[in-house]
Amino acid sequence: MTGALHPCCDPTSPSPIWEGNRRGEVINIDGIETYISRAAKPTSKSAGTQASHSEADTSNSKRIILFLTEGHGIYLPNAQLLADSFASHLNCDVLMPDQFAGQSRLPKGIKPSFPPGAKVPWIEDENDPNYELRGLATPLQDKFETSDAYPFLKPPWWVQEGPKAFEEWKMRHEPAVTDPLLALVIMYIHKTYGENVRIGGIGYCFGGRYVMRLMGAGIIDVGVVNHPSFFTMEEVAKLGKGQQLAMYAAETDDIMPPEKRRQTEDVMTSMGATWMSTVFSGTEHGFSVRGDLSVKEVRLAKERAFKGAVEWFKDWL
């Protein structure tokens, strides 16, 4: 990809914000901020017992949805509304972790004096022993006592023209960085919900690749991806017999053009996976999480992609 940072990966790019009241909350999973939307029905926890924010309230749940976002992350209202909707329709908890773990960095030894919720300046600290791992939450770093992660404020390269801007961002979130982060979330899921819990994965853009990777590793049981990006055919080839993946694609998508989508379908067929692929005309990359709902074609596509995902999980999860 060439040019400036793609809008799907740039949280400063304009996005239609859907209407609705979010009902989830943000909890901390081993230093990873995670939006959780809980199942609608009460559980068997004894009355008067209140779980801490680091614990889920549905330890007896038989299934859970892992929601992996596109570049705007877990604080995009649309993503939170989608997570709430999945929790309501599927009556199970939905966990949406911050795969990007912030990204801003302060120099070692600096004590923050910013008001709660404030964003802090970006400072390149090349002397940080974890410089190449910056963007990870503190617990994932080798020398966490001298490396701190704080709320995100876009660094200078974020708005830089040219391909370097995108490559700088993408390099910070390759599998070598993102896989260990998601491994902590998976450990939390099994510890909280039990080893036999079935995990459904819903991924948008960037998150779609990691739904595929986790399915290929046998961690996610059933998957749905919406206009997935940056995945490889080697990753698709790890989806085999007994695995189910639904894919919702845009008619116009420079990240996943028709040729790559068709190749993805061919590879899944050759590997014996159970799959479904749907393309919506009149849509562009990002429609299912950042679509302009005032456009009928986009609104209907977004709604059908959501309903289709719900039915896919009901059928297979």
From TrEMBL:
GO molecular function, a single term: hydrolase activity
State the organism of origin: Cadophora malorum
The name this protein carries in UniProt is: Dienelactone hydrolase domain-containing protein
InterPro entries this protein is in? AB_hydrolase_fold, Dienelactn_hydro
Region Disordered, as annotated, extends over 1-21
* Dienelactone hydrolase domain segment(s): 161-315
- Entry's PANTHER family? DIENELACTONE HYDROLASE, PROTEIN AIM2
